[in-house]
Amino acid sequence: MTNRTCQVCAKAIPSSRRAHSRYCSNSCYMIAKKQRAVLDYGSKKDLLNGFKKNERLLAQFYPLSESKKSISYDTLNALGFDWGISQNEKQDVNKNIWKGIGQYYYFINPDKTISIWKDSILLQKK
Ligand SMILES: [Zn+2]
Q1: Residue ranges making up the domain that contains 83
Q2: What separation in Å is there between the alpha carbon of 16 and the centre of ligand 1?
Q3: What global pTM score does this model have?
Q4: Is residue 12 part of a domain?
Q5: Distance of CA 75 from the midpoint of ligand 1 (Å)
Q6: Could you tell me which residues are beta bridge partners of residue 88?
Q7: Ligand 1: distance of its center to the CA of 40 in Å?
Q8: What is the dihedral of CA 18, 22, 25, 26, to 10 degrees?
Q9: Is there a domain that residue 105 lies in?
């Protein structure tokens, strides 16, 4: 079996530490905790910016969708829409899953056009 080493300073973890401890001392634990908090903050900020950008784009394109003009996946993609993030999902009567961001929901149609709805209009709201 290999000796456990501290994730912060790489020293061996004394056997007096808890069996699952990843740090050699409380001070290393505190350092790791601090680093993690900084990382968490950074990623939350990125996520928030992504949400804001997505919502802005949906707000911008919603009037087009409302007037039945088609919005292409590529257009939103080119503008930096982040398809990987959404706040929630809803299913409509046709079993399509709509992704929600802010007050908007979008759905990628099989022909790669995008439909956008405002929350208040979507069916099956709980
Ligand atoms: Zn250490």
Answers
A1: 54-118
A2: 14
A3: 0.66
A4: no
A5: 50
A6: 100
A7: 21
A8: -90
A9: yes
State the Cα–Cα distance between residues 43 and 116, nearest whole angstrom: 27
Structural domain contains residue 67: yes
Tokens matching residue 29: 């634990």
Residue 124 confidence (pLDDT) above 60: no
The structural domain count of the chain equals 1
**Residue 1's pLDDT band (boundaries 50, 70, 90)?**
very low
Task: Give the span between the Cα atoms of 19 and 24, in whole angstroms.
Answer: 11
User: pLDDT band at residue 119, thresholds of 50, 70 and 90?
Assistant: confident
- Residue 11 alpha carbon to ligand 1 centre in Å: 6
CA of 77 to the centre of ligand 1 (A): 45
What's the rounded mean pLDDT across residues 98-117? Answer: 94
